[in-house]
Design brief:
Layout: H1 3-19, H2 26-33, H3 38-44, H4 47-71, H5 76-93, H6 95-106, H7 113-135, H8 146-164, H9 168-189, H10 193-204
Helix pairs in contact: 1-2, 1-4, 4-5, 4-6, 4-7, 5-9, 6-7, 6-8, 7-8, 8-9
C-alpha cells in the first residue's frame, strides 16, 4: 500500500471517530489525513469505497492482534474474558465505534452494507472457530449451531458498544449476565454421563 493510501485510510478512521458516519466527507477525511481532498477520489474513487477499505483494514488489524489469544481459549468463560478485554481495548481505541458507525451508515446507504458485513465476518470466522472447539462434546453443542452463535456473539458485542454509550451500568450488567451463563455451561459440562445423556435428550426435543 502506498503511503498516501495509508494516510487516507488512517484519515477516514480518524474522521469516523471524531465526526461519526454522518459527518464524514472527503473534506473531513482529507483534513484528518493532512492531504488534498482530491486524493480521496484519485486513490479510491468514492468516499464510500475509502470507508469500506478503512473498515476492513481496521477490523483485520484488530482480529490479527487477538488471534493468538483466541487460539488459546478452552472454555466459554475464557472466550468471554478475552471478549471483555477486547471490548475495553477496542473501545479505548475507537475501533468498535467505527464498526458500529459503519453499521449505522449502512441502514441508509446500501453501498456500505457489503463491506461492513465483510468486516463483521472477519470476527465471526474467528469466534466460530473457537466455539466449534469449545463446544465439542458439550450438551450445548447440540443446541446452538456454532456459525449462528458466532454471529450472535459478534452482534452482541457491537450492540453493547452502542448500549454502553447511553447506559454504562446496564452494559456492565449485560456482561455479568453473559459470564453467569458461561459458568452455567461449565457446570453442565461437569455433569456425570447419565445426566449429560438425559440433558442431550431433552435438548433434542426443543424445536
Amino acid at each position: 500500500m502506498t503511503p498516501t493510501r495509508q494516510k487516507l485510510i488512517d484519515g477516514a478512521l480518524a474522521a469516523i471517530r471524531e465526526h461519526g458516519i454522518a459527518g464524514v466527507s472527503a473534506r473531513t477525511i482529507a483534513t484528518a489525513a493532512g492531504v488534498n481532498q482530491a486524493l480521496v477520489f484519485y486513490h479510491f474513487g468514492t468516499v464510500d469505497d475509502l470507508l469500506a477499505a478503512a473498515c476492513e483494514s481496521a477490523t483485520a488489524a484488530s482480529v490479527a492482534s487477538y488471534r493468538s489469544a483466541l487460539a488459546g481459549v478452552t472454555s466459554l468463560r475464557e472466550l468471554l474474558a478475552v471478549g471483555r478485554e477486547l471490548h475495553e481495548r477496542e473501545k479505548a481505541g475507537g475501533n468498535v465505534a467505527i464498526l458500529a458507525q459503519m453499521l449505522a451508515g449502512a441502514q441508509t446507504d446500501p453501498r456500505l452494507a457489503p463491506p461492513t458485513a465483510a468486516a463483521l465476518a472477519l470476527w465471526t470466522a474467528e469466534i466460530e472457530t473457537v466455539l466449534r472447539r469449545v463446544l465439542t462434546g458439550s450438551p450445548f453443542g447440540t443446541l446452538a449451531e456454532p456459525a449462528g452463535l458466532a454471529k450472535a456473539v459478534s452482534a452482541a458485542f457491537v450492540g453493547l458498544e452502542l448500549y454502553e454509550g447511553v447506559d454504562e451500568p446496564g452494559a456492565t450488567t449485560a456482561f455479568e449476565a453473559l459470564e453467569q451463563l458461561a459458568v452455567l455451561a461449565e457446570v453442565v459440562d461437569d455433569l456425570g454421563p447419565v445426566a449429560r445423556r438425559a440433558l442431550r435428550a431433552r435438548l433434542r426435543r426443543i424445536p
